[in-house]
């Protein structure tokens, strides 16, 4: 599989994840060592004080870093080994964008970081994590592979 086909397969895998239905279908673009995710923030994502819950920040930051790492591994599904999240400012509405990139590659692990922006381009969150090569072949992951006819 070519690198471009791998990136598009990761995008289809992300789109087909059942969890993303609860987040109102965020979209993702993958490139070599990087991934960008966009999602419209809706009231469903709010905590009781009326702003986005930290789980939204975590999901967008972890997903962007995760897929940046998996863009460089075309055989197996990578796993999040650890992830640190920094919540910098509250967000109530609009479109969020997270950008992840790999900053270090080892024999069995990747270190990636990500930044979350509001629709005005202000940084609202940041994260970094360690991702390890798993045992599950990507070919077995839901949505990975060529598009359905």
UniProtKB/TrEMBL annotation:
GO molecular function, one term: acyl-CoA hydrolase activity
Coiled-coil intervals: none
Keywords linked to the UniProt accession: Hydrolase
Entry-linked InterPro entries: HotDog_dom_sf, PAAI_dom, Thioestr_dom
Keyword Hydrolase: yes
Keyword Signal attached: no
Pfam families: 4HBT
Residues annotated as domain Thioesterase: 50-124
Record protein name field: Uncharacterized domain 1-containing protein
Organism listed in the record: Desulfoluna spongiiphila
């Amino acid at each position: 599989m070519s690198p471009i086909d791998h990136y598009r397969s990761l995008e289809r895998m992300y789109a087909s994840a059942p969890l993303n239905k609860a987040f109102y279908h965020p979209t993702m673009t993958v490139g070599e060592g990087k991934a960008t995710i966009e999602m419209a923030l809706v009231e469903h994502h709010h905590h009781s004080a009326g702003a986005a819950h930290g789980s939204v920040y975590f999901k967008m930051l972890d997903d962007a870093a995760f897929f940046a790492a998996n863009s460089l591994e075309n055989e197996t599904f990578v796993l999040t080994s650890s992830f640190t999240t920094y919540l910098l400012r509250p967000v109530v509405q609009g479109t969020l964008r997270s950008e992840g990139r790999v900053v270090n590659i080892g024999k069995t692990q990747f270190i990636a970081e990500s930044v979350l922006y509001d629709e005005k381009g202000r940084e609202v969150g940041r994260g970094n994590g360690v991702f390890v090569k798993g045992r599950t072949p990507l070919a077995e992951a839901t949505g990975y592979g060529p598009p359905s006819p």
